[in-house]
Amino acid sequence: MTSHADAVADHGHHEIEIPFNVTPRPDTGVYNAKLGVWLFLASEVMLFGALFSSLILLRTGAPTLPNGLSSWPVGKDTLHVLPATVNTFVLILSSVTVVLAWANLRLGDLKMGRIFIAITLLCGFIFMGIKAYEYSLSFEHHHYPSTHNFFAIYFTMTGLHGLHVLGGMIVFAYFLTFGSKMWKTEPARFTNRIEVVGLYWHFVDLVWIFLFPTLYLL
Amino acid sequence: MALKRQVRVGNQWMYARDAWRTLEEARRVALEEERHERQHDLPFWRKYIFSTDHKVIGIQYGFTALCFLLLGFCLMILMRLQLGWPGHAFSVMKLIGEGRAPGGVLLPEAYNQLGAMHGTIMIFLGIVPLAVGAFGNYLVPLQIGAPDMAFPKLNMASYWCYFMGGVVMFSSFFYSGGTANSGWTSYPPLSDIATHGQTFWLCGMVFLITSSLLGSVNFIVTIIQLRAKGMTFMRFPFFVHAQLVTSFLLLLAFPPLEAAAVLQLMDRLAHTSFFLPTGLVVSGQVLGNAGGGNPLLWQHLFWFLAHPEVYVLILPAMGIVAEIIANNTRKPLWGYRSMVGAVVFLGFMSFVVWAHHMFLTGMGTVISAFFQTTTMIISIPSVIVLSALFISLWGGSIRFNTPMLFALAFLPMFGIGGLTGLPLGLATADLHLHDTYYVIGHFHYVVAPGTIFAMFAGVYYWFPKITGRRLNEFWGKVHFWISLVCINGIFFPMFMQGLAGVSRRLYDGGEQYAHAKLIAHQTNPFMSICAIGLLAAQVPFLINFFYNAIASLVGRRQEIANQNPWHATTLEWAATTSPPLGHGNFVEIPVVYRGPYEYSVPGAANDWIPQHHETEPAPPPGGGMLPEVAVAQREM
């Protein structure tokens, strides 16, 4: 409980310090932000879980055609599997690089850490670029959200996922530029921040790993 | 005996215990002065408006939520005027605009708007922010001995998201198309094709969901991570357990509604058909949408939130009542451990009961049977908590002050609300009762004389903590007794109306239905008069509240002689009276030595032992003397 004692000792002199902001609490084993991001991700699971459930309900509720097949369009015939496959690998790569960024910061190497953050950010840009290309292909085929509920849920889910990617990219851009100033004063806290955004980034990656087969392949 | 030991402080000899207290007080005053000085560094807008201090944010939440509660209440007064005397012109109706009430006679469309906004405002902008945002924010860090919330900036963001959500919702009143008018449940297909007020509603909800997400993550992390030394889970005041379970409900139940809101926004703005079936006919015209959607999908997603939401409304209220009952019976809560177990179980179960709101949708008897069973099971933990609170009264020497009166009234009122819910949870009985005034009576008994009474109890109980002044007891009791009588006068006849089959949706109170006419005519004017009486009963409260709040702001705090006016045991009273707004709660982070309700411990000198007292009376924390003071000793 040393942080507690520190907080008490500092109390009279500085701004209030929140205990376990940087160091883990001994009996829970995590620092505050790490627990916070796990809870946030639990909430995100419920958000995407609700959308996946909606997809299942709409698909199973779609009328059956006279030939006995469902009238629900098959993703691999109507969507663009190749760019989506490339995107899958881009996101997996970015999940590796964000771990490498964190590992290098843990080893005290800011330069390598920043290089890997930059690569992760670049992967984000590539993903969004390919995604935009894919959307434009759909629009060329006159596939809009209002065309059919399959496209409606496709645009809604990939759009919401894209917003999550964009959110992660903004955070990486911040840590690459203004945010990295913290390294000089509080390197441990800065490393924690990369770990936390990394956890979020893995989650965004994981959502895509579920989205890709569900929408494009099944 | 330590009493025999004397020490010298400066040039004065005194008993060790007195000396320690004197020095501790001196040090406290010094630290506090220093802290006050530091606060002047912060500009006004950082200190009181965009503050990151949980106490300021709690007060902001509380004030905003009370304003919204009053607004929601005024909307229902207009509805009650219409129900009591259908078609009569009231000059007060002109307040909501000539377009909604030409000549003071309320239009049916406007009645729908008032109904939708009353529900939305009361639940999402009134009670949840008051119960969680205000009481939770102010009290939880104090009760667990934390210096602030774990993420102070997120806490501020949470309040301002809530504020923005309120502004968006409220602004739709000034939109020419009117507010949302599809009820607080916003069932499609009606809501999909409704006026743009519904888009305001959905955007407002996205802000409110974001706010509660930020808040709930913050609460859980604060409770788990920032507990003071010695504050184990089973030493939490019951209120903290209630807030912890509530936060998990908000964290996990709200996202599906957010997903549903996104889908409905897509339906409305991108013309998708998530909730629109094929071949829907609106005003004699086939809607040219793709179709294939399912209105039931909305209901599932909505109630997946909205049933846990019911427990979000009631759990903090139970927590507040438990604190006040333990304090005013001067004895520990009966069955504390089983109460904690019950609320945790309640939290889990609340995720698997949602479809009992949908028995009449034709989703099938198997599914109905499942949800009927889980609904019967979930009533057990509620009964455990309520029974434990009742038994806690047994053998206590009860102090009937205003907070205790409100807390005591909560028990039978919540009891009526809960028990009348059982027939609604049984699919067969629900066939008759669904969408009648019985349902309205049931959930209002839970939320109005239940939760809101608990909120009033909390306001009266913690007002001295926040302001340093007690609210006037006499006017508090006037407020209580008139409110109690009037609120029952409004809601009890609803059960009779509902059993007679009066629909909850009729804007004329059943004027056109033979079966509804008799009972509605006999009861509606009486209920409306009671509603006006209830409004009048809030006047002494408002005066009492604002008089004392303003008196406290201008520095008149002398009314309370000590820091702990109710002689309570929990940690929030270990902080100074009305802890300075700004940063920091405790002069020293307390160490916790005992459970939350050590009242009337046999053999103790006082009938309460605070959680941070190691023995009675209190020694210095850690048992050491203050190092900076020269201490000499002599034996007597």
Structure in words:
The complex is a heterodimer of chains A (218) and B (636). Chain A is mostly helical and 218 residues long. Chain A has 2 domains: 30 residues, no CATH class; 184 residues, Cytochrome c oxidase, subunit III, four-helix bundle (Four Helix Bundle (Hemerythrin (Met), subunit A)), CATH 1.20.120.80. Chain A has 8 helices and no strands. The longest helix of chain A has 31 residues. The N terminus of chain A is likely disordered. Chain B is 60% helix and 2% strand. Chain B is globular and about 95 Å long. In chain B, strands 2-1-5 form a 3-stranded antiparallel sheet, covered by helices on one side. Chain B has 16 helices and 5 strands. Chain B has a domain of 104 residues. By secondary structure, chain B is mostly helical. The C terminus of chain B is likely disordered. Chains A and B meet through helix 1, helix 2 and helix 6 of A and helix 6, helix 7 and helix 8 of B.
SSE topology sketch:
The complex is a heterodimer of chains A (about 220) and B (about 625).
Chain A: H1 2-10, H2 32-60, H3 75-78, H4 81-106, H5 110-140, H6 149-176, H7 182-185, H8 187-217
Helix pairs in contact in A: 2-6, 2-8, 4-5, 4-8, 5-6, 6-8
Chain B: E1 6-9, E2 12-15, H1 16-39, H2 44-49, H3 54-84, H4 108-143, H5 152-171, H6 197-225, H7 238-269, E3 281-282, E4 285-286, H8 295-329, H9 336-349, H10 365-393, H11 402-419, H12 421-425, H13 427-433, H14 437-467, H15 473-499, H16 514-553, E5 633-634
Antiparallel strand pairs in B: 1-2, 1-5, 3-4
Helix pairs in contact in B: 3-4, 3-5, 3-16, 4-5, 4-6, 4-7, 4-8, 4-14, 5-6, 6-7, 7-8, 7-9, 8-10, 8-11, 8-14, 9-10, 10-11, 11-14, 11-15, 14-15, 15-16
